[in-house]
């Protein structure tokens, strides 16, 4: 999907790609703060914070994959696989740090397998991650016998309490942003996603960079999975169903290009906050929660249309 | 492809009790008529280098709307309503993908979620049961006493699609678009219109599949058709299609659907649950694309 004749991003300081999400975010945030007393309660804000953190952490990984010119439909399945593995380890009495390492490794391996199939066997990312979307969830369902794994130790559950999820989101987002902007790895991801063939010719390790992006997405999914498990005190294989939509939508609204090479973590996180605020607004105004997916889907498509129009304009200029 | 089909068939014929009986095979065929319909549409989509993740959700909405229409206005209106829903949603996909030239993954991912959400909103998540006999009867009609009507219907659609792809200018245009869209456009093919028509047809077939599911299960459920996209894409790839576009055959797809049907049925008879089946289907999908890419890299 990445085209080699990409129009280079304009080097202005104004965050063009992120602007729509940020503006919408300010508007909706302002509206909610001013218009809803229920929104301002600490319990509600922390709930939104938790949901945002789960989607936002995954969106960091997805943003890297998209920037590197791929797509990952398997994030929610990697989430349940990794967190399910960690939960099984904790239930088996393993120390928490070791269990978390198990989860992170599972995420990295699951993402790495995606990356390996996509780069070494040159398979299309949509097909590979669609297959593993089914495979990873089925695998954890078989490992657990589709039973709920819990209760989990209180020390672990603390990860999902209060403002802890927001700190975790900030840490993951900060690290990802720093890697993207300030390291050779990050610049490699932008280069590969912007012009894969040119990157190959100029000697970048294209396959390793892309594989790294998918593995990173798996690790992010694992961290998000810890938040899901910790906040509910248990893990089950049917958790996080459909989250891949929220994650991809968050990235696209936040200005991460689906054609690769462009976008930022700040945008993806802003997209995640925006989506979850919309979800919260539906809840607060007593609109059936089933509307949420419709709204998210509509926003995803509108964002894609906007991206398309911006691209046309850039070509014309 | 034929090899995979035979292998699955022989394996279960030897292992699973009650597999090799007409009753069982026909019952399986009846359940997979709907998968075949959707897969025929998906064959066209993959042929032009696209993808449609929304077929299962479209089938779900179509089934519910048809169910609602059946309860109020009777069977015939239900069929029209279900097909119309498929056409409209498929048309939206087509307009966004071919008209605005958006990524098919993004558009149909949006439709996947949007249409499923619509299905829940329509009945507040409740199933519609007690559908009138006029609507459900044809889901249980057998031609000459032994061929299910729905299977015959799906077979006719598949046959017509196969002829259309191989013998008509339209079909050759789709192949040209899948092989090299730019070249196809320069040689005067209306690739935009043609691409939109493929998503429109796929929506129509998904709508028909939704009707079949509702008629066969005698109920319209918001969850109906979940995972259909997974089965259909697997069937098309198993059938030897190139996932990047340019080559796909309805005959291959039909064999792919049959393989999946036998696989699920055999696993059911042997008592493996749905997670094992997902594992097997996902494995087949990956295996088929890997094999295809290996074979091609050997060939050229």
Please explain how this structure is put together.
With about 325 residues, chain A is an all-alpha fold. Chain A contains 13 helices and no strands. Chain B has about 300 residues and is mostly helical. Chain B is globular. Chain B contains 13 helices and two strands, in the order ααααααββααααααα. Chains A and B meet through α5, α11 and α13 of A and α5, α11 and α13 of B.
In short:
Helix content of chain A is 72%, strand content 0%. Chain A contains 13 helices and no strands.
Spatially, the strands of the biggest sheet of chain B line up as 1-2
Helix content of chain A: over 70%
Give the oligomeric state. Answer: heterodimer
Mean pLDDT across residues of chain B: 91
Helix and strand succession of chain B? HHHHHHEEHHHHHHH
Q: What number is the mean pLDDT of chain A?
A: 92
Report the major sheet of chain A: none
Strand content range of chain A: under 5%
Largest interface: A-B, 46 and 43 residues
Shape of chain B from CA axes? globular
Whole-number radius of gyration of chain A?
19 Å
Backbone CA Rg of chain B: 19 Å
Runs of chain A with pLDDT <50, length 5+?
Answer: 1-11
Overall, the morphology of chain A is globular
Number of helices of chain A: 13
Span of the ends, CA to CA of chain B: 20 Å
* Derived structural class of chain B: mainly alpha
Euclidean distance between termini CA atoms of chain A: 23 Å
Number of strands of chain A: 0
How many separate helices of chain B? 13
Show the helix and strand layout.
The complex is a heterodimer of chains A (317) and B (300).
Chain A: H1 19-35, H2 42-67, H3 75-91, H4 96-119, H5 125-144, H6 154-157, H7 164-182, H8 184-194, H9 196-201, H10 206-232, H11 243-253, H12 265-284, H13 291-316
Helix pairs in contact in A: 1-12, 2-7, 2-8, 2-10, 2-11, 2-12, 3-4, 3-5, 3-10, 4-5, 4-10, 7-8, 8-10, 11-12, 11-13, 12-13
Chain B: H1 2-15, H2 22-47, H3 55-73, H4 75-99, H5 104-123, H6 133-136, E1 142-143, E2 147-148, H7 149-167, H8 169-179, H9 181-186, H10 191-217, H11 228-238, H12 250-270, H13 274-299
Antiparallel strand pairs in B: 1-2
């Amino acid at each position: 999907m990445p085209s080699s004749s990409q129009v280079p991003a304009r080097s202005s300081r104004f965050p063009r790609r992120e602007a729509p999400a940020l503006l919408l975010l300010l508007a909706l945030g302002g509206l909610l703060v001013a218009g809803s007393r229920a929104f301002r309660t600490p319990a509600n804000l922390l709930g939104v914070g938790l949901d945002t953190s789960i989607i936002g952490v995954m969106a960091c990984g997805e943003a890297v994959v998209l920037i590197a010119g791929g797509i990952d439909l398997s994030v929610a399945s990697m989430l349940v696989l990794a967190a399910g593995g960690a939960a099984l380890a904790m239930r088996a009495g393993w120390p928490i740090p070791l269990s978390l390492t198990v989860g992170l490794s599972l995420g990295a391996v699951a993402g790495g397998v995606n990356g390996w199939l996509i780069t070494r066997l040159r398979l299309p990312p949509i097909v590979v991650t669609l297959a593993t979307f089914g495979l990873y969830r089925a695998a954890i369902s078989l490992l657990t016998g589709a039973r709920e794994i819990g209760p989990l130790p209180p020390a672990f559950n603390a990860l999902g309490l209060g403002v802890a999820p927001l700190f975790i989101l900030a840490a993951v987002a900060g690290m990802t942003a720093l890697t993207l902007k300030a390291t050779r790895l990050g610049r490699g991801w932008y280069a590969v996603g912007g012009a894969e063939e040119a990157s190959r010719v100029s000697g970048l390790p294209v396959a390793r960079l892309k594989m790294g992006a998918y593995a990173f997405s798996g690790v992010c999914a694992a961290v998000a999975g810890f938040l899901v498990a910790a906040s509910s005190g248990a893990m089950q294989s049917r958790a996080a169903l459909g989250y891949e939509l929220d994650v991809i939508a968050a990235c696209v609204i936040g200005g991460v290009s689906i054609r690769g090479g462009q976008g930022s973590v700040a945008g993806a996180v802003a997209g995640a906050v925006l989506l979850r605020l919309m979800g919260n607004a539906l809840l607060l105004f007593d609109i059936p929660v089933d509307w949420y997916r419709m709204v998210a889907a509509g926003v995803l498509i509108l964002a894609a249309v906007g991206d398309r129009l911006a691209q046309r304009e850039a070509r014309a200029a | 492809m034929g090899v995979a089909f035979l292998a699955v068939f022989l394996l279960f014929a030897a292992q699973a009790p009650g597999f090799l009986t007409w009753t069982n095979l026909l019952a399986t065929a009846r359940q997979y008529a709907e998968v075949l319909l959707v897969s025929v549409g998906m064959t066209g989509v993959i042929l032009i280098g696209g993808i449609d993740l929304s077929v299962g959700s479209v089938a779900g909405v179509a089934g519910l709307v048809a169910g609602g229409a059946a309860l109020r206005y009777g069977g015939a209106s239900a069929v029209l309503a279900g097909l119309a829903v498929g056409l409209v949603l498929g048309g939206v996909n087509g307009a966004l993908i071919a008209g605005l030239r958006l990524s098919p993954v993004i558009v149909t991912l949006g439709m996947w979620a949007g249409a499923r959400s619509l299905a829940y909103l329509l009945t507040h998540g409740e199933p519609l049961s007690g559908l009138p006999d006029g609507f459900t009867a044809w889901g249980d009609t057998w031609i000459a006493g032994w061929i299910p009507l729905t299977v015959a219907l799906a077979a006719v659609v598949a046959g017509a699609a196969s002829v259309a792809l191989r013998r008509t200018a339209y079909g050759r245009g789709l192949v040209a678009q899948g092989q090299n869209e730019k070249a196809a456009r320069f040689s005067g093919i209306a690739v935009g219109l043609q691409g939109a028509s493929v998503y429109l047809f796929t929506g129509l077939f998904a709508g028909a599949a939704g009707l079949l599911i509702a008629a066969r299960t005698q109920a319209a459920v918001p969850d109906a058709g979940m995972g259909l996209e997974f089965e259909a894409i697997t069937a098309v790839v198993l059938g030897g299609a190139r996932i990047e576009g340019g080559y796909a055959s309805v005959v291959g797809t039909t064999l792919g659907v049959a393989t999946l049907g036998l696989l699920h049925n055999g696993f059911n008879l042997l008592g493996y649950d749905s997670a094992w089946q997902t594992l097997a289907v996902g494995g087949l999908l990956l295996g088929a694309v890997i094999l295809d890419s290996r074979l091609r890299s050997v060939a050229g």
